[in-house]
Every structure is written in C-alpha cells, then in structure tokens.
Please model this.
Amino acid sequence: MKLLGRLLSPKGSVLVVVDVQEKLLPFIADKEMVVKNIVKLIKFAKIIGMPIVLTEQYPKGLGSTVKEIRELMADLQPITKLPFSCFGSEEFKESLRRLRASTLIIVGIETHVCVNQTALDALEKYRVHVISDATSSRTRENWRVGIERMAREGVTISSTEMLIYELLAKAGTEEFKRALELVKR
Model:
C-alpha cells in the first residue's frame, strides 16, 4: 500500500490572507512580526507562482488592508465579507473553485475568530495549513487558544520559514535563491 506524502506542494496551494486591516491592526499582539511574515509569504507566493486570495472583514468599519500588504497586491481586489468565516462568502468559495485549490495556507487576523472559523470550515474540503507566526489576535491568549483549537481539529500548524522550505523542496533552484533573500531578512 502506497502512502500519500504529507509534504505540501505548490500545485493546488492557495495563500489566503485574512482581514489584515488598518483599524484592527493597531490592537493586535506582535503586529510587526505578523505583517513582516505575511509580506514575506506574499513575496514568496509570487516567486513560486502560488495564487493569493485576500479578504477584508467589514471594511466600512475596519478599514482597508494595511498599506504594506495592499501595495504588494495592487492587482488583486479584496473579497469583502461580513461573516467571520471566509466560507460565508460566495465570492470567496468561487475564487477557490476557479483556482482549483486543494490546499489552503491561511494567514491573517484574528487567529481565534476569522482565521479559526475559516480554517475549520475549510477542513471539510481542503488540506489546511495555518501559519502561526503570520497570524495573531488582540491578546496572546486568544492567539494561543485559536492555534490549539485548530490543531486539535486537524489543521496543520506551520511557521513562515517551515512553509517556505517545504514548498521549495530543494536547494539550488532559481526560486530557492530568490526565496533565500526573504528568509535572511
């Protein structure tokens, strides 16, 4: 009996950037690290040609996606939503169908609300990875509880570097050389 590999591949993977918005970010624990890692992952996704989906929770109240991320994704229109889970948005679900997603790599805020609900809903149809150092909440306790709950439910918890190296799979390629510059920062 042949076992399926557990490592990720770029094929079928989609980076989902959840609700990193101007009016919410100032209250988020470790916000500088989280934004820095999300920026790394967006740049990395572009290096390997991995599609990206961007969401905004009630932008009228929470503002637009933060400048550092918005500037990198100027060509991508955010999916606006009211439900906490991205799966409450038909536009979000249609984006994943159109991209033929099989694996969701989820980053953003808040870990215990929108990230958690999106990840748990995704488990019904997708392989799900949440990047722990590219997510956060207003308190570290809520971040921890969110990460632990998702892990218990079957979400794979990874880190930014772990994900980059896993998707690269080997050294010596042009993608590896370009990604190495991101990891060194």
In short: DSSP finds eight helices and six strands in the chain. The mean pLDDT is 94. The radius of gyration is 15 Å.
